[in-house]
Specification:
The chain is of the alpha/beta class and 427 residues long. The protein has two domains: 3-68 and 319-426, Alpha-Beta Complex (Aspartate Aminotransferase, domain 1); 70-316, 3-Layer(aba) Sandwich (Aspartate Aminotransferase, domain 2). The chain is 38% helix and 16% strand. It is built from 14 helices and 16 strands. It has helices spanning 3-15, 70-81, 91-103, 116-131, 171-174, 185-195, 220-231, 250-255, 281-284, 303-316, 321-342, 368-371, 376-388, 409-426, and strands spanning 37-41, 44-47, 52-55, 109-113, 135-140, 152-153, 163-164, 177-181, 199-204, 234-238, 261-264, 275-279, 348-352, 355-359, 391-392, 401-402. Bound molecules: pyridoxal-5'-phosphate (PLP). Pyridoxal-5'-phosphate is lined by residues 115-117, 120, 143-145, 205, 210, 238, 240-241, 265, 275.
Length: 427
């Protein structure tokens, strides 16, 4: 029973558009009202009515250590006692920047901001400033925050200019954006042949995780590196999710493809608002005050947020953390694959490191078109059936499930059993 949740929601919609401060939270895609939460404890969320759930949202990725990790809480506590914000530099910002540059092969200098959206928006401004070109290539189904010029739908035909995906965005702003299918090297090649001299950058999620988890095909990221270099465009990896999720050096460390600019967010704030963008010193030196490309922020490098990020990364640097995440998530994947087999269902699953998606489709998963074939109604009933069994999944088919270091074999086992029963119930 979620009596208080329902009451809170009734009130919320009076004062907040849709009752939520970010749209997916509204749970519309799963035909449900949002659950209001009161507490997080490790792998668990406790709602306003005292119900407990195993959490696979993990705040959409940042909580790789789980909820209320003691080191993160201590970092936040001691930082806040020293003051909440100074609008002037602190040593801790330097420590975080130094740590990021040491770990990420592409990053020599880094600027801290307050969100992933700010990071991608600023990286694109910088890429345009550096190349003195305007056009940007992005991929359908990749999400880079709510940046005007990146909120686009594909126009008709390959390599045509994109149309705004939201009212309030002038066509002039998206007319410089080229929206191509993920994993389609030929489409990228064609776009460069047509517009090569005008393209400032290609921005990509090295592992797409905002249409469910969609791994890059072999050679795709390498191809993006080659073609951008050939035409003098920059390659931007949006590692807001994959940074510190795939490993301490992000997807670039795993795939060995080094972009010109990298965007970070989510995990580097340990559950507080932090984003970052960085890259070669030569490019980053164009940012104000060193250079003419303007970018600023009243709360950028906020001491409390930085403390949470530092504590999180320090924990991740301990030996065995990524092996542990890999083992747990592999157990989840294998368990769910067994369940599908047992029930005679041929739905697809994907997994990269500690990110996982169960797709309600039988098509091979390689881009936005293939994930669009999913039965989203069925997913909605599955989500509800899982919630009833104490498992809180991302409330949309097109999201990654995140496993944290607070999850254990016990939670994974409970989840696999719940998946079996939920799938049986809805088929
Ligand atoms: C979440 C996300 C963003 C946006 O970050 P916000 O902090 O929500 O603004 C950008 N890019 C990717 C890949 C993301 O997953």
């Amino acid at each position: 029973m979620r009596i208080r949740s329902e009451k809170f929601y009734e009130e919320a919609i009076k004062y907040i558009p849709g009752g939520v401060n970010s749209p997916v939270r509204a749970c519309k895609a799963v035909k449900c009202n949002p659950v209001f939460f009161e507490r997080g404890e490790g792998a668990y969320l406790i709602d306003a009515d005292g119900n407990r759930y195993i959490d696979y949202v993990c705040s959409w990725g940042p909580l790789i250590l789980g909820h209320a990790h003691p080191e993160v809480i201590a970092g936040v506590y001691f930082a806040s006692k020293r003051g909440t914000s100074f609008g002037a530099p602190t040593w801790q910002e330097v420590e975080l920047a130094k740590m990021i540059t040491e770990l990420f092969p592409s990053i020599e200098k880094v600027r801290l901001v307050n969100s992933g959206t700010e990071a991608t928006m600023s990286a694109i401004r910088l890429a345009r400033g550096y190349t003195k070109r305007n056009k940007i290539i992005k991929f359908e189904g990749c999400y880079h925050g709510h940046v005007d010029s990146l909120l686009v739908k594909a126009g008709s035909g390959l390599a045509t200019f994109s149309i705004p995906a939201s009212p309030g965005i002038p066509e002039e702003l998206t007319s410089h954006t080229i929206n191509l299918p993920y994993n389609d090297a030929d489409a990228v090649k064609e776009a460069f042949e047509k517009f090569g001299e005008e393209i400032a950058a290609v921005i990509v999620e090295p592992v797409a995780a905002n249409m469910g988890v969609v791994p890059p095909k072999e050679g795709f990221l390498e191809f993006l590196r080659e073609v951008t270099q050939k035409y003098g465009a920059l390659l931007i990896f949006d590692e807001v999710i994959t940074g510190f999720r795939l490993g301490l050096s992000g997807a670039q460390g795993v795939f060995g493809v080094i972009p010109d600019l990298t965007c970070l967010g989510k995990i580097i704030g340990g559950g507080l608002p932090v984003g970052a963008y960085g890259g070669k010193a030569e490019i980053m030196s164009l940012i104000a005050p060193e250079g003419p490309v303007y970018q600023a922020g009243t709360l950028s490098g906020n001491p409390i947020a930085v403390a949470a990020g530092l504590a999180t990364i320090k924990e991740l640097k301990k030996p065995g953390t990524y092996e542990r995440l890999e083992a747990l998530t592999s157990m989840l994947e294998e368990g769910i694959k067994d369940v599908l087999k047992k029930l005679g269902l041929s739905y697809k699953t994907t997994r990269v490191a500690s990110m996982f998606t169960l797709f309600f489709t039988e098509k091979e998963i390689e881009n936005f078109q293939s994930v669009s074939s999913c039965d989203t109604d069925k997913f909605a009933y599955f989500w509800q059936a899982m919630l009833k069994r104490g498992v809180y999944l991302p409330p949309s088919q097109f999201e990654a499930w995140f496993v944290s270091l607070a999850h254990t074999e016990k939670e994974i086992e409970t989840t696999i059993n719940a998946v079996y029963e939920a799938l049986k119930e809805i088929h």
